[in-house]
Design brief:
This protein has 35 helices and 30 strands. It is of the alpha/beta class.
């Protein structure tokens, strides 16, 4: 897989070049006497990068090339590590003193000059062994790979057509036969309808298109037809020739050659096709189109030509291309095979029957595991089924276990490997490390979009595109690029249909792990996907538990440490100096409970950019050494025991996300103190009691534990979930998220400084008990935050709620605000809320509002409204005529003690309402008027008292959209008055968001 290695080497050289260029501009390099060497390395990297790009696709001397690329890869990593260490060193406050130390100067200069020699040697090595050849034949190799994969796939098309395609074929034919809607094509070029089939490789797009193409229905519908295979690289002239031969016959091509005396150019062919297609009804299938650029080169033949009922079918893996070609109504997403269809296809290919499975329960279990791995992907089912056809069923279990490795080495699985690898190799260089990064997550793991985006930024995968977009926005664009290329699949949507999380198909994940292993990208410990590093230098370490950490493993080059579940062996320290190049410490998805001693040495890791400690940790205070982490971008330690942010955090000038809050659970805090007390006993002089020895650890002294116990006991009695923010917070100019500020305990000076955070996008505060002076200072500060998009303010703790008086003091609206959460007594919506024109989401709790007129009439872009306990105090919640013009989602969770007894929708209200979700409400007068909601899709009511259920059902049944209705644990009266349980009327998928961070 030299092509894969070449692509990764190109990406890594680009990353090293960026760091080297930054280091070269530092004046301290001149003082150290290495500035010329740094510039030399930077210039060589530029040439190396250009050389690698020019050689993309080379296959000659594949073994030599692969070895050479491995050397380039390791060199690029080492250059980046060295220069990042150099940059950290010169920015350290003690640098001026250290620079006078001849030993330190010599060490840095020696490392850089050694790298210079290695760069020179790399160029000489290529000359000696001719590892990369720049020849005209290079580009043809891409075509060869594509055709190889397509030929493998084509062998299975006929078999794939036999299972699960009848109904999809019927729907596709109906879509093709449908008349073109002129309004939908207003933004597209004139010409035929374009129907796009989009999905990941191996899904059966070609098989489905072929079955429809060969059908009698379409044969009789069109005057002429053509099936054209496009692929990644294609010859435009040859493609046009093939279209002419299929559409009009070989004699037309011969005549065209004669007319132009054998000198036919692409423009002649395009003009000829355009003229001939104008007056006929045609069907053209363009199979396997990869890029928008390719589409633009082809569509010139039929734009402005053909009758409106002509049709072009495009099959592609690229969702953006499909959106570019076709309006939404003409984009078709083939589905994965269902369990029954997948089983039928697998057994057919494996020469087995259902009776065979029933006779052997062990084989049945293995088949189920294999099909789960295949995930309904037809090509995977066919390929693996074919591999097992000639093997005894006793061998199937062994093959299943070895499948991740066989995907990389077994020739029988070439079809599957090539189809997925083609998608990877076709990724632009900036997306390849983002995709490989997915290999560090467990199989079938749901990955939050925001989590992934922030990690990509911290890893340095995201380049500043010189626009007004933040790095996070650029990274989010990368996320959607991978999704549009079918490399990841959306797995969770929020209430407005935005993607919140994704999954990687199991087969794609196995290929990613395989590539990661070959590229020495990540070491995975634990689980069936464990990998063993082939070299000493490990760059990314992912720990799935049920494995032991090799004590001899070199961790000095590890850039990210990700922990899932809970480790088998106790971790001595998360912040060991062995992780000297660590950028990412991610415990978000682990069951490991971090303690104070686990982070006390965090200052020893100066390269850290991302720290995420799972909620409910026993951490009581951030160590002062955290000020050493000058590159830190994300510090997420929510629901801990921390009550005060140390002043050293104000030195973290690259900090973008600061998320810290206290867990409001007294028993949790008491348990934490007991944990610290236990540590204190274990760290005391002398041997601990026998029953404590399994937890014992080696401490030099117990002073730290005494301090932790004191801090922990103090934290126990704090009634605030917020954090005291120090003076100097205004120096954090890059801060985008700040959570959770305790206004009462934070000084007025620090509160005023919040107004200096010009980049702040999200602010979460606790306002309970704040003085009038602090409230006024807070409002004045927030009014200056022109970039603020999400604002959450609450006064409730321990079931009580103070007034939100501080919100009334706002003099001006927040122009960029998109989401607002208010928790506390309010009684009426402040006037500035109605003037915040971009406000789209509002959550209210304990507000005791008497009406919603401001929200209903003055917030035109409001799309989501969620009302929680005591948010509304009237008995009837009525949505009146012309109110809430853009509201799409309504969520009510008012509580059984709330005043609301009836929800009513009058005619011509909320015209865009799509989903209604109601929980724990006492609706003694029911819900009426849903028949007036023209875009309603579903109604979900859970654990509520609901009268007039027959009227609700009747309204839903008669609704033109036939929205889904689900009633769970709903009673016409209180449960003690009636034990009748309402059955579920329809099953719907719940896509609601439990909480948006």
């Amino acid at each position: 897989m030299a092509e894969t290695a070449l692509g990764m080497a190109t990406t890594l050289v680009g990353s090293a070049l960026s760091v080297a260029s930054s280091a070269a501009r530092e004046e301290m390099g001149l003082l150290l006497g290495v500035q010329d060497d740094i510039w030399f390395i930077s210039d060589e990297l530029k040439m190396m990068q250009a050389f690698l790009r020019a050689a993309d696709g080379a296959r000659e001397n594949a073994g030599v090339l692969k070895a050479y690329l491995e050397l380039i890869r390791d060199l690029a990593y080492d250059i980046e590590d060295c220069f990042e260490e150099f940059m950290v060193f010169i920015k350290h406050k003690k640098f001026v003193k250290q620079i006078l130390n001849l030993g330190a100067r010599h060490r840095i200069a020696f490392q850089i000059r050694t790298l210079k020699q290695r760069v020179q040697e790399m160029s000489q090595r290529n000359l000696r062994y001719n590892a990369i050849k720049l020849t005209p034949s290079t580009s043809s190799n891409v075509i060869g790979d594509t055709e190889l994969a397509r030929n493998f796939t084509a062998l299975n098309v006929e078999e794939a057509q036999l299972v699960g395609l009848d109904e999809p074929k019927k729907k596709l034919i109906e879509l093709i036969a449908k008349s073109k809607a002129p309004m939908e094509y207003e933004t597209y070029n004139a010409g035929p309808r374009v129907v796009s089939l989009v999905g990941m490789g191996g899904l059966g797009k070609t098989a489905l298109a072929k079955k429809a193409y060969d059908s009698k229905e379409l044969s009789n519908m069109f005057s002429t037809r053509a099936w054209i295979t496009v692929s990644q690289s294609f010859d435009q002239k040859q493609l046009f020739k093939e279209m002419i031969n299929q559409l009009f016959g070989a004699e037309s091509w011969d005549k065209l050659l004669k007319d132009h005396q054998g000198q036919v150019l692409e423009v002649h062919l395009a003009d000829y096709l355009s003229r001939r297609l104008k007056e006929i009804r045609y069907l053209i299938v363009l199979d396997d189109v990869w890029t928008i650029d390719a589409w633009n080169h082809i569509k010139i033949t039929f734009q402005d030509s053909g009758k409106d009922d002509s049709c072009v079918i495009v099959t592609t893996r690229n969702g953006k291309l499909a959106e570019y070609c076709s309006p939404p109504s003409d984009i078709h997403h083939p589905e994965f095979l269902g369990k029954e269809e997948a089983t039928t296809l697998f057994l057919k290919k494996a020469n087995k029957s259902l009776d065979d499975l029933e006779k052997d329960k062990n084989t049945k279990g293995i088949v189920e595991k294999i099909l789960n791995k295949c995930g309904g992907l037809p090509l995977a089912i066919l390929t693996i089924g074919g591999l097992l056809a000639n093997k005894d069923t006793k061998e199937w279990k062994s093959l299943y276990r070895q499948l991740p490795w066989d995907l990389a080495t077994n020739p029988s699985l070439d079809a599957l490997r090539q189809v997925v690898s083609l998608s990877y190799n076709h990724l632009p260089s900036h997306l390849k490390p983002c995709f490989l990064h997915l290999s560090i997550f467990p199989e079938d793991f749901e990955i939050e979009k925001k989590h992934l985006v922030n990690r990509w930024v911290a890893e340095g995968f995201v380049a500043d595109d010189t626009t007004t977009r933040t790095l996070e926005e650029v990274a989010e664009h990368y996320f959607y690029e991978l999704m549009s290329r079918s490399m990841i699949q959306p797995s969770e949507l929020d209430n407005l249909g935005n993607v919140k999380a994704c999954r990687v198909h199991d087969i794609v994940h196995d290929i990613a792990v395989s590539i990661s292993r070959q590229e020495n990208y990540a070491a995975i410990l634990g689980g069936h996907m464990s990998t063993i590093a082939t070299r000493v230098n490990i760059r990314h370490l992912s720990y799935f538990a049920k494995a032991k950490l090799n004590v001899g493993m070199d961790l000095s080059h590890v850039r990210s440490f990700t922990l899932f579940n809970e480790p088998m062996d106790p971790i001595a320290s998360l912040c060991s100096s062995k992780f000297k190049m660590l950028r990412v410490l991610d415990l978000k998805n682990s069951r490991f409970v971090a303690r104070q001693r686990d982070i006390k040495n965090i200052g020893l890791l100066p390269h850290l950019k991302y720290v995420h400690i799972r909620p409910a940790s026993f951490v009581y205070a951030l160590p002062r050494s955290i000020g050493n982490l000058q590159g830190l971008q994300t510090l997420d330690i929510r629901k801990s025991n921390i009550s005060t942010m140390p002043s050293e955090t104000t030195k973290l000038h690259n900090l973008r996300r600061l998320r810290c809050s206290r867990k409001m659970d007294p028993w949790y805090h008491i348990g934490g103190c007991l944990n610290v007390f236990l540590e204190l006993i274990l760290s005391s002089p002398g041997a601990p009691p026998p029953w404590l020895r399994p937890w014992s650890s080696d401490h030099d002294n117990c002073s730290d534990e005494i301090a932790n116990l004191h801090t922990g006991m103090s934290s126990c009695w704090s009634s605030s979930s917020g954090i005291k923010v120090p003076k100097g917070v205004g120096s954090l100019k890059q801060l985008q998220i700040l959570e959770k500020v305790d206004i009462k305990r934070t000084s007025r000076k620090a509160i005023k400084e919040l107004g200096e955070l010009a980049q702040l996008r999200k602010l979460v505060v606790r306002g309970k008990g704040a003085s009038k002076k602090k409230s006024k200072a807070f409002c004045e500060a927030v009014e200056k935050l022109s970039s603020l998009r999400s604002f959450c303010v609450g006064t409730n703790e321990w079931g009580t709620a103070d007034g939100l008086d501080l919100l009334v003091s706002f003099a001006t609206p927040l122009p960029s605000l998109e989401r607002l959460k208010m928790k506390g007594r309010l009684e009426e919506i402040p006037a500035w809320v109605g003037k915040s024109v971009n406000l789209a989401k509002i959550d209210l709790k304990y507000c005791k509002l008497k009406d919603l007129k401001v929200l209903a009439t003055e917030v035109p872009n409001l799309m989501q409204l969620r009302l929680y306990e005591d948010a509304y105090s009237a008995e009837k919640l009525e949505f009146d005529r012309h109110e809430f013009p853009n509201l799409r989602f309504l969520h009510l969770q008012l509580g059984f003690t709330a005043s609301v007894r009836e929800v009513t929708f009058v005619e011509r209200t909320t015209p865009n309402m799509g989903r209604i979700r109601i929980e724990r409400c006492e609706l003694a007068s029911g819900i009426t008027g849903v028949k007036h909601l023209p875009k309603l899709k579903e109604v979900y009511i859970l654990r509520s008292t609901l009268a007039k259920q027959d009227i609700l059902r009747e309204d839903v049944d008669k609704h033109k959209n036939r929205p889904a209705l689900q009633l769970l644990d709903c009673y016409p009266t209180r449960p003690e008055e009636s034990e009748v349980k309402v059955e579920v009327t329809e099953s719907i998928s719940e896509q609601g968001e439990s909480s948006q961070s």
